[in-house]
């Protein structure tokens, strides 16, 4: 059971962080030269598909992570430092995602659908900033999770 929980935990984390890395380092520079209506439409479609999957990844991370805490570590009292760090950073990332989803992303979609492209672009920039922060936090969390048991 531990191997299954760990495997799906790793896959969910890599999906989320890898998706952010792809969007930030590959898609964003490639979309930059596009005209605003095309570029914003592309981001509307990409994020419209990616963000719900991040929500699913978060649920999988919480269920698998806390399943391992209870089944393998015997509860929260005996958690090693690296698990607490991973958990704390992960919760910050999840809160940032929720803010992104319910504030700038929601405003971006509304402005884009209304044809208010400058407003949409401003909100997309806020999404980008949050994704950048979460990408850095996600990389740190992946490193902590993968190396922490060897500290």
Indicate the percent of residues in helices: over 70%
Report the radius of gyration as a whole number of Å: 17 Å
Count of helical regions:
5
Structural category is mainly alpha
Count of distinct strands: 0
Task: Report the β-strand fraction as a percent range.
Answer: under 5%
Mean pLDDT: 97
Helix-strand topology string: HHHHH
Largest sheet: none
Please state the overall shape, judged from the principal axes of the Cα atoms.
elongated
N/C terminus separation: 25 Å
Low-confidence stretches: none
Walk me through the structure.
- This protein is mostly helical.
- The chain contains five helices and no strands.
- It has helices at residues 2-31, 36-71, 81-102, 104-113, 117-147.
- The longest helix has 36 residues, at 36-71.
- The chain is elongated and about 55 Å long.
- The relative contact order is 0.15.
Tell me briefly what this model is.
The protein is an all-alpha fold and 151 residues long. 85% of the residues lie in helices and 0% in strands. The protein has five helices and no strands.
